[in-house]
Amino acid sequence: MKGEGFVTVYYAQAWCLIAMLEAKNARFSQPWMSVGRAVRLVQMLGVYAIDVKGGDAKQVLPPAQDWIELEERRRTFWTAFYGDRWASILTDLPVLEFPFEFGLAEETSRFTEAFSPRGLGQISSFSALLLATKLYGHNREHLNINSPNECVENIENSEFWKRHRRLNNALLNTFLYLPDSLRLPHGIDDMNTAFVHMCIHAFSIKLHQGAIAPATKHGISSDIIRHSQVRALTAAEEITNILRQIDNVDVDLLNSWTGFCLYVAASVLIKDQQSDQILVKVSEI
């Protein structure tokens, strides 16, 4: 890393690690500030554009000495992207997993191809983690759109419900086309794989919770509401099942954002429990 001057990729990596530590300690806003610094550093270093041919991004770093150093720079970017999933950064970059760890070069596909059935069948656990992060970002954007053209009451033709169905299909396809190595319980020993499933289930909960509220407000069919309630509850139960399977794992090995998935699942399970108690009280009257 000689000649990198006043800033190196290690600075960005350090801020990512600080953010992970802060997240594990539930300091909430602090990780976003820390990972924000990491994002600015990777932008300054130009590692977000190392695979863009003919781009105009400023390259502060000298040429990588070998492909391993080049991959380290890629992963520094992706770690910043993963931590700061709401930042406006480019995502059309290649990713690697086990070949990098064992010192073997391998051809990879571009990130956008990972959303296709063929791409999903070839991704690694690290790539799947990024994919789940991207899906969650799409869902957040979907729920935050506030436009007069939404027409939520029109379940067939409104933009809101069209996006909901597209995201739901993407969610189902992700589970359908994951490679065997990323399926549970086969891949439960890989904490990335376990977290990917927890993250996707949390995404499912947020997606369907986002559908329940407007459906209830606009008096849409109770079948639609019940369907989303069942999907959210099923996803919450799956998160708890995954946690039971890894309950003997050292907490330090868990992903920093595992607590968020548990929080989302708990909100559904507690609400379901409260609903059952209300029904019991009503039946006793």
UniProtKB/TrEMBL annotation:
Q: Which GO terms describe its biological process?
A: DNA-templated transcription
User: Record's SMART domains?
Assistant: Fungal_trans (SM00906)
List, for all copies, the residue spans of the domain called Xylanolytic transcriptional activator regulatory. 31-111
Q: What is its main location?
A: nucleus
Which Pfam families does UniProt cross-reference here? Fungal_trans
This protein's UniProt keywords:
Metal-binding, Nucleus, Transcription, Transcription regulation
On whether Acetylation is a keyword of this UniProt record, the answer is no
Q: Which GO terms describe its molecular function?
A: DNA binding; DNA-binding transcription factor activity, RNA polymerase II-specific; zinc ion binding
What does the UniProt entry say about where the protein is found?
Answer: Nucleus
Instruction: Give the domain of life.
Output: Eukaryota
For this record, the Gene Ontology CC terms, alphabetical, are: nucleus
Name recorded for this polypeptide: Xylanolytic transcriptional activator regulatory domain-containing protein
Q: Which organism is it from?
A: Botryotinia convoluta
